[in-house]
Description:
Oligomer: heterodimer
Helix content of chain B: over 70%
Distance between the termini of chain A: 16 Å
Largest sheet of chain B: none
Largest interface: A-B, 14 and 15 residues
Amino acid sequence: MARPAGRIENRIRRLRFDAGEMTQKDLADRVGVTRQTVLAIENGKYFPTLELAFRIARTFGVGLDEVFTFHDD
Amino acid sequence: MSSGERDALTGLITMALVFVLFVWRLSGQHQAGLFDGPQALQTWARSVLILVAWSIGIAIAVAVAFHILYTSLTGERTDDRRDERDRDIDRRALTGAWYLLSFGLLGVIVDLALGASAFRAMNLVLALCAGSEFFKDAAKLVLYRRDA
């Protein structure tokens, strides 16, 4: 049986803005990736590993489900 | 530009230069008759080993020249970090290159079965190695650009 399609969205851009307009570079440095990776995640072109997702959430002091949300299509 | 993207770009330039060098040198030696006779494969192998050493030198020179040019033209330093996205792109590009190499080798074996010479087969294997390496770097560049 085929897996139903889903969509993952993120609120990283919003969370960065709320965190005193943190730059992509700042976030990248804090979680240990390149700025290009943060950009790709924000644009929904790359889905991070669970570990990186937790690191991002922890950086903003929120839960994982406040950064990433899953929608059934 | 991340280090992964930079490596892919310098890899492409290096492979293009190395391929031209190999074709120019080996075809020149072939036309000069160096690969005729019973020692043909041995002579060919020695030539290839010398060219491999040259290739390493070219790779270092291209990497250094690219770094200096990029830094002086853009004024920005490349990010030397490699993260999970780099490894993901590496894996996807390597998988494609591996398929290309595998099917290519199968083709060479078919070619041999149909009567091709060992000399021709070895040249095809060499071209396949270069082609799959070129494909890997090109695929990486495309993935970096597409997924940005």
